[in-house]
Amino acid sequence: MQWTLVVPLKPLAQAKSRLSDTADDGLRPGLALAFAQDTVAAALECPAVRDVVVVTNDALAARELAALGAGIVPDEPRGGLNAAYAHAAAVVNASRSAACVAALNADLPALRPAELARVLDTAAEFPRAFLADAAAFGTTLLAATRGRELRPFFGPDSRARHRASGAVELCVETVDSVRQDVDTGDDLRAALALGVGPHTAAVAARLLTREQ
Predict the structure, then answer these.
(1) Sheet (strand 3-8) strand order
(2) Contact 145, 127 (CB under 8 A)
(3) DSSP letter string over 68-99?
(4) CA-CA distance, 45 to 70, in Å (whole number)?
(5) Count of helix runs (H) and strand runs (E) in the chain
(6) What are the tens digits of pLDDT across the range 12-56?
(7) Would the N or C end of the chain have less CB density within 10 A of its end CB?
(8) Are the C-beta atoms of residues 124 and 115 closer than 8 Å to each other?
(9) CB-based contacts of 197: which residues, under 8 Å, 6+ apart?
């Protein structure tokens, strides 16, 4: 089974505001883009992934992520994260009926293709399934197999909300790179410890240079 991943990305100027204690306004947009670039690049290398669709209205992000091989869908609802996920899933299903669709966070800079494959292969066993984030409160991936509605409930306490919606929580060991999203400075340090992709590594190096 191969999956289409839908990845939402805010306009870069508005992204990653919780990193303000670690990166200033001049670096945060670049970090957000780098996170997305490393996430998309790793996802496209995953053998379980057919394609990646990024939903965004940011022209720079759209150009850079399309250059990596992602499809781009405008965020027409402009209604927040869950509306963006649902819109992208609807676009995918309209163009390819009964697709297997998984919603993936755009801030997984340490993502490993093999670990993502393990998660998606396990998700294929259930109609809807999700993976909790490293903090154990949020969600980094929500998957819906053919003919199933995605029904995303991302945001605060999304782990509990996805579970309450009937999605099966995936208990897959040693997939830390798929769980480690980045919202705070501590998250970024955890991702760096796992080993991030080249785009994030380059921006993080500039951040460390500024701190010295």
Answers:
(1) 71-73, 49-55, 3-8, 101-104, 139-144, 128-132, 168-169
(2) yes
(3) HT-EEE---S-S-HHHHHHHHHHHHHHHSTT-
(4) 12
(5) 8, 7
(6) 999 998 898 888 888 999 999 999 999 999 999 999 999 999 999
(7) C
(8) no
(9) 34, 37, 38, 39, 41, 42, 109, 110, 111
Q: Return the number of other C-beta atoms located less than 10 Å from residue 156's C-beta.
A: 8
Q: Which helix (H) or strand (E) holds 38?
A: helix 28-44
Distance between CA atoms of 33 and 98, rounded to whole angstroms? 31
Closest to 53 in 3D by CA, of 24, 86, 15, 92 = 92
- Distance separating alpha carbons of residues 132 and 134, to the nearest angstrom: 7
- Rounded to an integer, what distance in angstroms lies between the CA atom of residue 111 and that of residue 23? 21
- pTM for the whole thing? 0.96
**Is 185 annotated in some ligand binding site?**
no
139 is in an annotated binding site: yes
Q: What is the token pair recorded at 191?
A: 């991702």
**Amino acid of residue 155:** G
Q: Is 158 annotated as a binding residue?
A: yes
Place of tokens 């460390």: 208
Question: For residue 191, which of 45, 51, 31, 54 has the smallest C-alpha distance?
Answer: 31
User: How far lies 90's CA from each of 8, 87, 110, 121, 139, in Å?
Assistant: 14, 5, 28, 22, 20
| Residues 94-139: tens digit of each pLDDT | 887 768 999 999 999 999 999 999 999 999 999 999 999 999 999 9
